[in-house]
């Protein structure tokens, strides 16, 4: 029995949930239709290039959480799950999760997307443990700020080690599945790194290091 760790966006689901949430907010008329779309696209491109300014991105991404009531956010998230996430649930990803469960492995999703967006997705996938960016909450409302270290790039490693210490788990025999070269710091930490439908940079590195490469997309 080992720890099976999974990236979420474009790994277990065939979309980026952070970007999709931005598109959903645009469709609801909840954000500026010009400035927000331009920023959402720019930050997505920066992420893909490995040049994302995480602090600047989170300032934009968490602002709508602070500007709306928990009730409104919950109602929107239900619609978001149905329209933007459910169509991107990958059957092969669910099969992979099931195989690790059958082995008795502990399943963990670790993502650079915030917990408001991703907690219901992890629940939908039946994964009990989630490490995500934590939006700060005060008096029951989001503040628009981040609590703690964002789980992005090296931050994923830092957050994971803190989680391991808290849960009294180890990385012995651990797996990590990811599509992105941004996850190289964590891929290098585990015994079984797996590149899943990888971007070009990760594919090249995985081939050079003879890491397993697999696809969860339908053929």
From TrEMBL:
Keyword Magnesium: yes
Signal peptide per UniProt: none
Recorded metabolic or biological pathway in which this protein acts: Amino-acid biosynthesis; L-histidine biosynthesis; L-histidine from 5-phospho-alpha-D-ribose 1-diphosphate: step 8/9
Keywords from the UniProt entry: Hydrolase, Magnesium, Metal-binding
EC number: 3.1.3.15
Record InterPro entries: HAD-like_SerB (IPR050582), HAD-like_sf (IPR036412), HAD_hydro_SerB1 (IPR006385), HAD_sf (IPR023214)
Family as reported in the entry's similarity comment: Belongs to the HAD-like hydrolase superfamily. SerB family.
Record's function text: Catalyzes the dephosphorylation of histidinol-phosphate to histidinol, the direct precursor of histidine.
PANTHER family for this protein: PHOSPHATASE RV3661-RELATED (PTHR43344:SF13), PHOSPHOSERINE PHOSPHATASE (PTHR43344)
Protein name: Histidinol-phosphatase
Organism the protein comes from: Vreelandella populi
Taxonomic classification: Bacteria, Pseudomonadati, Pseudomonadota, Gammaproteobacteria, Oceanospirillales
């Amino acid at each position: 029995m080992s720890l099976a760790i999974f990236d979420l966006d474009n790994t277990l689901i065939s979309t980026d949930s952070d970007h999709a949430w931005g598109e959903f907010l645009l469709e609801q008329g909840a954000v500026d239709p010009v400035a927000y779309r331009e920023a959402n696209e720019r930050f997505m491109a920066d992420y893909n290039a490995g040049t994302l300014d995480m602090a600047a991105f989170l300032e934009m991404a968490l602002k709508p959480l602070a500007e709306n009531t928990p009730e409104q956010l919950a109602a929107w998230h239900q619609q978001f799950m149905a329209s933007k996430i459910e169509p991107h649930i990958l059957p092969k990803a669910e099969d992979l999760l099931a195989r690790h469960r059958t082995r008795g492995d502990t399943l963990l999703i670790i993502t650079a997307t915030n917990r408001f967006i991703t907690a219901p997705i992890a629940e939908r996938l039946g994964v009990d443990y989630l490490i995500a960016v934590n939006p700060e909450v005060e008096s029951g409302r989001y503040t628009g700020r981040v609590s703690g270290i964002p789980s992005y790039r090296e931050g994923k490693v830092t957050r994971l080690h803190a989680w391991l210490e808290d849960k009294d788990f180890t990385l012995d025999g651990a797996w990590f599945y990811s599509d992105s070269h941004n996850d190289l710091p964590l891929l290098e930490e585990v015994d079984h790194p797996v590149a899943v439908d990888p971007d070009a940079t990760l594919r090249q590195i995985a081939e050079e290091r003879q890491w397993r490469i697999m696809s969860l997309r339908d053929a």
